[in-house]
Every structure is written in structure tokens, then in C-alpha cells.
Records
---
Amino acid sequence: MSLEQLFDVKGKTAVITGGGGALPGTLASALAELGVRVAVLDLNEKNAEARAESIRAGGGESQAFTCSVLREEELERTREKVEGLWGPPDFLINGAGGNSPKASTTQEFMEPADLDRGDCLSFFSMRMEDFQASFGLNFTGTLLPTRVFARAMVRRGSGSILNIASMAGITPLTKVVAYSAAKAAVANFTKWLAVHLSHTGVRVNALAPGFFMTEQLRFLHIDQATGQYTPRAQKTVAHTPLGRYGEPAELVGTTVWLLSGASRFVTGDVIPVDGGYSSYTI
């Protein structure tokens, strides 16, 4: 088999949750360029439709679907629509997720006096519903779409599932408690499910992105008044050996490899795409 055939994904169908967002949306567009039919799932109808329309304008085949990754019945209805349009998917990318400031602390290091400070969001003052909402979006929002869309893959005997973990799940970020815990769960679940499905022909892997300059991160890591890096951003770049943030398109190569036959002996792996972040220490 030639290298071109190994990486060929043309004619396949992909379901991408969170497809209206920056990173999953970039993957959706890239796969469509390679001839993949792309189902763009997102809770935000406007964002999902904008991504699907952009793909169609470029000559690709795509359809937007509005649903919540936390509602199994909505996912089931979407699955029926996708299968009615293109048949069972070959690929599932679980891209829905995100962090919430309500599920993050305001201080890196807590002091005893912080227990009584009204202006300090600590581990102890954080509302459990805020923690659970962030954790649920990132972990349950990966588990449920997998239950819904992978069943047909197992029945067919082939398929590739790609979860989006994070460097925060490998080495937890200060302040970011719920998101880090959820992404660690995603990484662990990826490995567990890969073993569980290993005799079915379905492979399960994950990307663990480092810091990518999305619009959300740009707002948090760039001083809006000066355009300069915030102190936290400076720490981020200093801890990334390549000395910069990643660009969303830099996830595409690893994604195509993990979905295609080029990685047919790869399952249960969590692949860092992080500019060396996970390899650097002092």
C-alpha cells in the first residue's frame, strides 16, 4: 500500500462535536478538503451552520446539526439524521468542551486567610454546580457522543474515535481545577475504551493539545489595552520550548494520521501536540 493510500480518508464520514468552535472547526474544514463528509455538531446553531456553510462554499460536503452533547436523546436524534444522510460515521471527533472561570480559582496558591475573603474564589468557595458543569461538559460530553455514535462502528467492525484531551489533563494547570480534572478523565477514558473495543475493529486515541491561540485564549492571554502577553501568557510561552503558541492548523497532521489507516496499529494513545510543553522542566 502506498503512502498516499495509507493516509487516504476520501469518501469517509466524520461526526465532529463542538464543530462550530475554533479547534474542532479547523479539523472539520481540513477533513472536508480531503474529501470527508463532515457532520458539524454544536450547541450554537449559528456557529455550526457558519462552519458547514464555509465547507460547502469551498466545495466540501457538510451539514450542521444543533444538539447538546450532554443530552443523549438529542444525540440519538442527530445520529438518526446523520445516518439517514450519509450512513454510519467512520470517524468521531469529540471536540466539545471548554473552561469556565466559575470553575477555576482566582489564586494559584491558597493562604489560610483566603478562607474568609469574599473576593477570592478558592477550592472551598467554588460552587459545586459550577464545578460539575465544567467537568460534565468536558468528560460526559465526550462519553455520551461516543456511546451514541460508536455503536454503529462496532457493528460494522471499523472506525476511529479521536478525543480531545489536553496538557491540562497530563499536568494540571494552576487555578484550572475542573477542566484539568475532566481532561485527565478524558485521557484515562480514552485508554480504557481503546482496550474495551480492541477486538471490534474500532480504535480510540486522543490529542493532548498544549496552548493554542484561539480567540478565547487570545482574550485571556493578551492584554486588551496593550496587545502584550499577560503575566500568565509569559509563563506559558516560557514553558513551551518552541517559544510560541500553537496555531489550530497545526493539529491537522496528527489528526489525519490518527483517523487514517496510517495509524492502524495505534490505539489507546494520548498524543501531545504541545510545542515541547510536556517535555520541559527545570
---
Amino acid sequence: MKVPTKGGKYRVIAEINMIPFIDICLVLLIIFMVMTPFLVRAQINLNLPKASSGDNDPRANESLKVQVERNGRISVDGQRVAADEVADVLRRRLHHPLTQPVLIEADRDVPFQHVVVVLDAGKKIGATKLAVSVKPEPDRRHQPR
């Protein structure tokens, strides 16, 4: 780009305009900050057991979800937690222990001891609504034969 000077001659501007680059970087940073919590939650792959009495609870969105993986790792709403810290994390994250449900999503192959650790932590902090998540079995009565 050439810019006129006082003498009527043109001089070349050899500078890079950094403002568009900074704008793009800030937009990308905001996108990554917003998407990271969703990506972390999506990485926990649980194979839930099936039960004929399972249903879709409309209050599941307000519940505090605790995932127990096959290898014994425990996550509270997508954030990994050590087994001895589960009670402290639940105490901080559970806003209403008497009314807010704690939903335990345990892999079907997980040893029961890991589920008991979460149940015990919930009882220690005074949570009254503890539930175990399952996949509802398909209703065979309404399927064509």
C-alpha cells in the first residue's frame, strides 16, 4: 500500500495490521471456552444396565450427575474426582441436599464397591434423593411381530 507524503511522493507501508488477527484469536478463544465443558462431558462413555422399570425423569436436568466408569474413575458432572474427595465435591456442588437428586450413572461392568463409595458420600453430606441411572428396555408390547 502506498501513502502520499508531504513532497507528493508515495512511500510504502510495510506493516502488518494485527487488529483482524487479534479479533479472530479472541473469537476462537471464546468458542473453545464455551465448547470445552460439553466436550469433556461427552468423553465419558458409560454402558448403563437396562431395566424394565426405567423411565425418562423430567427432573434429570436439575440433578447432580455422578459417573462411575468401569475402571473405577468417578466424575461429578464431567469433572474427575478422587474417591476420597467425592463427599467434599458433592457438598460443594449440591445446592439443596434435601430436594436436589444425586443421579449415579455407573457402567454395568463396574464393581459394586465403586457405586457404594458414591452412595456413602451422598449419605455423609445429607443427600436424601439418591438414584441409579439405567437405560429403559424397549417396550416389546408395542413392537410389530
---
Amino acid sequence: MNQKSWTIKTLLEVTTDYLKKKAIDSPRFTAEILLAHQLDIDRVKLYLDFDRPLNDREVSGYRSLITRRLSREPIQYITGVQEFWSMEFAVDPKVLIPRPESELLVEQVVCLHKEKQSPDGLSTRILDLGTGSGVLAIAFARELEDAYIWASDISQEAIDRAILNSRRHGVEDRIHFFWGDLFQPIMDRDFTFDVIISNPPYIASEDFDSLPPEIRDHEPRVALDGRKEGMFFIEKIIREGSDYLNPGGWLLLEMDPGQITKALKLIEKSNGYGEKKCVKDYSHRYRVVMVQKC
């Protein structure tokens, strides 16, 4: 990047080749996202202004962003945003980056809500365990206008970020955020729910060091590490979840496809559960386990 005069077009071309040589995934996409972020414009605007000359400050700032990406810092932490459920959320290294697979949880809960027949007229009560940046709870609040939503996380910093995101999307009055480990914040509150959902930490501790550096070195380990075989929190939620579900209520858990069989065996050994089913992700691999309380 030593050329004296840069346009958007030439800078993108050179950067894309450079990132490709450095084995950075999606080099063109990365180059465009970071340049659009530096210039504070939409990616489409890059193509509309292909021949726009860039000043030294813009080029220097862009170099800094590219350097951060070369250190394998995720794009989402560099730009500070990630899209989920067609909404933009603020993210930082204190919270897990939302994955597209987690939208399955939203889809399933929306379906359950539509199918629910409540003769007493009560609204659906939803608990989001390990809310992180709050994407699931906020998506529920946007999709289900008559639902009551609670969300907990062991990280106070994550709760703070989730609250900011809820304000960003105008649903802060619809969600009750609690700090604490899984069910701990509501243990003495005599709360029960129609739906409990969680995308808990499920990476096996023994596999953590082999993760891509974007994940291993930058995302919060507390949101990823599921201890031995990645099953610690999955097992705990299955074991304790029925105590907080209303009769006929559903527990939904996201996990690694390789953990599905173990989770189903744990459910069979647990008391209080009846119907269960598994949901495939967009790669046609089972990703979500759903189980209903008797």
C-alpha cells in the first residue's frame, strides 16, 4: 500500500490481493466491509463512488483496520456490529458474536407461540439463559408483541451490552435482564416459563486450543467453554430446566451436532419431560434440541 494516490477501486483491488496472500477468509468481502466502515458509508456506496480519490487520513485509518484483521481479530469486533434476524447489534470482545444458526431458536419459538392455545388468555413467558449481546431476547421482543421476556447472563458486561442493544431497538421495556449463572437469578423468585431457550457454552475444553484464532484469541472464553466434552451447561440446563417450565412448556437448546445424541439420552433419564424433537441447521445438521414438559 505505498501508492501515492488511491481511489476506492484501486485500494480495494490491492487490499483484496494482499488479504488473499495472507490467507484471510473472504478477502474481497473483508476489504469492502472495512473500507466502508472507515469511510462511514454503505458497501453499495463504494461501487457508486469507485473512482473517488482517498486522502491520507482515510488510507491510514484503513491500514490500521487491515492490520487488526491480519492479527485475526474478527471483523465484527473491528466494526463493532453484527447482523442478526435482520437487525444490527452492537458487539465487542465482551460478548460472543451472534451466529446465523442461532436464528433457528427464534424461528422455533415464533412457531411455538403461534401454535400455543391459551384458554386463560395469558401471554407467553420466555426465559433466555446466557443472553450475551441480547440478540435472542430482542428478536423475541420484536416478533412476539404480547410475550414477557426474561434474560440472564453470568457476565455483567454482557448484560450491559444487551441492555444497550435493547434500547437501540426500542424494546428495553419488554425485557427483564438479570445478572447471574443460568437459573440462579430467579431461584428465589418463584418464576416459571412457557419457553426456556439457551445457546450455552458447548465447546469442549479439550478442543479449545484448536479453535480458529478469531474465536480462541478474541471471543470471551466464558461464553464458549462447555468444560469436559462441552456438555456441562447442557446437562445442567436439562437437569434443572423442568423445574422452571410450566406444564406443556418447551426447553430449546442449541449445541454442536455431535452432542445431540448425548443430550437426548440425558433427557430420557430426566424426570418431567415428554415430547422431544431435533431441528436441523442451514447446513442440514441437527443443531437444536426441543423438549416439552409433561
